[in-house]
Each structure stands twice: as structure tokens, then as C-alpha cells.
Specification:
The complex is a heterodimer of chains A (about 170) and B (about 425).
Chain A (H helix, E strand, L loop, with lengths): L2 H13 L37 H4 L7 E3 L12 H13 L4 E7 L6 H21 L7 E7 L10 H7 L1 E8 L1
Parallel strand pairs in A: 2-3
Antiparallel strand pairs in A: 1-4, 2-4
Chain B lengths: L1 H15 L9 E6 L6 E5 L15 H11 L3 E3 L17 H6 L4 E9 L5 E9 L4 E10 L4 H17 L8 E8 L6 E8 L6 E6 L3 E6 L5 E9 L1 E8 L5 E5 L5 E6 L5 E6 L6 E6 L5 E3 L7 E6 L5 E6 L6 E6 L6 E2 L6 E7 L5 E8 L2 E8 L6 E4 L7 E5 L5 E8 L2 E8 L5 E6 L3 E7 L6
Parallel strand pairs in B: 2-3, 2-4
Antiparallel strand pairs in B: 1-29, 4-5, 5-6, 7-8, 7-30, 8-9, 10-11, 11-12, 12-13, 14-15, 15-16, 16-17, 18-19, 19-20, 20-21, 22-23, 23-24, 24-25, 26-27, 27-28, 28-29
Helix pairs in contact in B: 1-4, 2-4
The chains are: A alpha+beta (about 170), B mainly beta (about 425).
Chain lengths: ~170, ~425
Amino acid sequence: MNNVTRLALVAACAIVLSACARQVREEPQPAPVAEAAAPAAPVADDGRFGPEDLDTNPCLMQRTVLFDFDQDAVRPEFQAIVACHAKYLQDRPEARVTLEGNADERGSREYNLALGERRGNAVMGALQAAGGSAGQITVVSYGEERPVCTESTESCWQQNRRVEIVYTAR
Amino acid sequence: MLRHLATSALLVLALLLPLPSQAQALEIDIVGGNAAALPITVVPMPYLGTQVAPETDVAAIIAANLNRSGQFRTLPLANLVERPVRGTDIQFPTWRVLKQDFIVVGRVLDAPDGGFRVEYELFDVAKQERLLGLAMTGRARGLRDIAHQISDQIYERILGVRGAFWTRIAYVTATGRGDSLQYALMVADADGANPQTVVRSREPLLSPAWSPDGRRLAYVSFERGNSTIYIQELATGARELIASFRGINGAPSFSPDGTRLAMTLSRSGNPDIYVMDLATRALTPVTRHFGIDTEAVWTPDGQSLIFTSDRAGRPQLYQVPVSGGDPVRLTFEGDHNAKASVSFDGKKIAMAQGERNVYRIAVMDRSRAPPVWQTLSPGNLDESPSFAPNASMLLYATKEGGRGVLYAVSADARVRQRLVLTDGDVREPAWSPFRQR
């Protein structure tokens, strides 16, 4: 697969997510860049995700949803990520995820514990709305206790205001 | 009275002995000063016995305590032109010239049982009147406790308010990086000395809360993956799992009589305040709201809880009867007010107050109408205030140079004492109740 095709697939996945049920892996047809936004038709399968897609599908490989300060609303730009994970859960009833809610360091630790849970619940709600089932999803909040970035700057805080989608069963 | 005090000092020592003493010490330094503080001289107390002299400098501990309270200013040792050891040695004109209001003299002697006996006297310089003359006895390792108890006696005799130097603080440390990151719940003397490990964990620990008798700590641990509340007996290390429901199990707070524990649970899908009867483990819901309700603390009468809620948008403090009912909003200043600590008399509420990206410790005196506000800390990421049991000082946590440090600040905000871990973060301070005399 050449780089242009790869980029085209990533773009297609990001833009028209529902149509990108499965990344094309065999004998890709060299798609012109102009057609990148068009639905990339799944090739020779039932359009369902399989466990290996978690390691290869550009959308499924994204497992972090970021949030605004003191907010728990899933931002529009993360709807695509939520949608592909919801489809994965729908395609694979045996799959299980834990949603780990986190907050930045501002505000008290216990409040942030609650805020992290709310963010986890917001992603759970979005996953269920898009086809995942409640029994597949667990929410845990770590509040501000597990930062990925430890500086007291806005860019760092943004990285910490997150929900991580962790697959406990594929 | 004297024998009783000595027994207390030994008892404390015995309680601390079973715990390992490998804990990393906090480094302590004092920031700021208070020109309006009462001038007092604490003359070094020489050892006059025949054993090896004890390492603990009793007078130095007393002087440090009085200074960091913000209410006293001790004469620097270099200015001590005389060093009287007994009241009868004091030349009062000397200390009047040095503008001292009070002078403390004392000496350390051998006790018949192989320990030490500290005798001291407190004088009013202007009146040339002896205000206190007491002796306390203990082992070498109990001398710090004796110095703190003497500090309390001096503080109370002069100010008419019980001293809180002979108390303890609990806090959480985080040391190491990456895979070697380790958390510890610690207990130390109120001045940061004598740190002891209560529990260690590879997973985060937070929200230590003292039982009213000072014998137990409730805290939150992530060792089971999710947040879980434990209560641990300090003397024995024995602990009980208190709450491990689905969702958050956080923010424990003992009722003033020690029979109940307020906590935050999200078992019903949303963080709300509950009260658990510790004898029966029966849970009573106190709040029921779709917003975040957390960080409940008890009012001194045990009738109400003050908690953080974002029901109006941003976090603010509310008060609700323990028996249930409609919460009343308490704070209307500042974008963000959270994590209340209530003074022993219920008059003052300390909290972390946020305006944009600056978080400071603020105190609201609700005994005045309208309430009077005071800012106690400079920011920017100050949090987790905890009143001393006499409300003369507060502990809080902040971040300096990328790491967590604690400050003890006098109630007038004039004197701050920093408590720093040599290597690692220190956070989540909780000041103990008074020790039982």
C-alpha cells in the first residue's frame, strides 16, 4: 500500500466513518486522491470489525477522547472515534471496554474524581447511543491521579482532560 | 497533672513504636514573619544531668512552634545577652531593654527511671510575674512530644486559647517515576518531624480523614483498581474495607462523635453524599441531585454537612442537614469554591477558591453578616485546606517547581511554613484533632 492510499484511507475513515467499516488490506485498488472522501467499499467481507482491526484501523487505534475544562460533553471532533468503537462493540458482542476518566490538576482531587467519572459516563452514553451495549462497558475514574503530562500548562492540562478507551476483551 | 502529662508522652511514643521509621523526613522552612507578633524569649534549656545529653533541643522546638503560629516572635539566639536557667536568675531590666513581653527558662534533668525531666518557667517581663512553672518527664524519644506540650501550655497561658502544637498531620507522598512510582499515606508531628508510614501502595492514595479520637484514619485507595474507602487503626495497622461500591467511593469524613462516616458514592449513577453508620454499615443518602456532590465535612454540632456541588454550574459550597432536606448555597464569591474545612467553632470555613487559572486558599468567616472573606495563600495551584484543631493555623497543598509541597499558614496569613519532601511530591494534608491529654 503506498502512502497516498494510506492517507486516503485515513481521510476516508475520519470523514465518512460509517462507510469505513473495515480497512482494505488486500489488493487495494489505487484510489485517486480526489476520490478519498468517497466511501471506501469494504472488500470481500461482511463489513464487520475483527480483533485485528484494533491494531490496524486508524480510527480504532485512536483510544483517547479529550474534553474542555470542567466539562463532560463529548466534542464533535471525537464523535468519529466514538462511532467506530461503538461499531466495534456492536460487531463483537464478546468485546469489553473500560473507559478511564481523567481530569487535569486544577480543582480538588475529589471533585476531579467525580468529573473523571462524568466524562467516562459521557463516552459510555455516546457508545451506547451508537450501538454499544451497557454490559460491554465499564467506567472507572482516576480523577487527576494519572496525568499523562505533568507540567502546569494549558497544553498539558488538555492532554490530561481525557477518557481512555481500554479494551479488556477484544 | 504532671504525672498524667508524662504518661501521655510515653503513651504516644509507644503508639508510634510498631511502625517502621524508614520514612523520608519532610524538610521545613519558614517564610515571612509578623511584626505585630508578641515578643518572647525562649532561653536554651541546658542538660544538667549525668547521662549522655539528649539530642532533642527542647527550647529550639518550643521557639520554632511559637514562631510559626504567627502569634509570637522569638528573640534570635544571637541577641541573648544572658542565658538564665531558673526564674531566680532572670535580670528583668535586661529583657525589658530587649523589648520582650515574655521569657521562658528551663533545664533538662535526669528522671529516676532513666528518662529525662524537663522543668520550665514562663514569666511576664513587665510584671515580673511567673505565669507557669511546670515539669514533664519522658524518655529521650518522647522529648519532642514534651516540647510540643510545653509549647501548648505557653500558648494557652498567654493567649487563652488551647495550643495545637502537640498534634499530628496526615498526608500523602508520591515518590519515584514511571513503574517505580509509589504512594504512601504518612503521619507526622504537626511540625513535620517524626514521619511514619501508615500504608504504602503502587496505586494512588487520597483524602485522609482523622477520626475524632485521632486513633484512626479513613482514606481512599485505588489498590483494587477503582476508588475504595478504608479505615485504618494507626496503632495496630489493622484496617477495614468500608466502601467498595460500583462507581466512586470517595471523600470520607468522620462525624464529630466518630460513629458515622460521610462519603461520596456514585453507586446510583451520580456522585451523591451518603452517611454510613459505622456500627451497622447502614447507608443513608443525604443528597440526590444530577450534579456532582462531594467533599462533605461535618459542622461541629454534627447536625449538618458542608459539601462541594456543581449543581449551579461551577463548584460551590452548600450546607445540608444530615437528616436530609434542601441544600443551601454558602459561597457567592469566586468562580470555584471547593473542599471545605470547618473551624472547631463552626465560624470559619476554609476552601480552595479558583478564579480563572489561579487557585488560592480562602476563608469565609460566617459569624459576621455579611460574611468576611480572607485570602490566606498566594496561589497558583493551592488546594486541600485543613484547619488545625484550634483554628490558629491551616495546612494546604500546592505545587512549586513542578512538585507537590505543603504549607502551614497562620490564620492571619502572615507566617507560612513550607513542608517539602526531599525527593517526591507531598499532598492531601489533614490536621489531626487534639490529642487526648
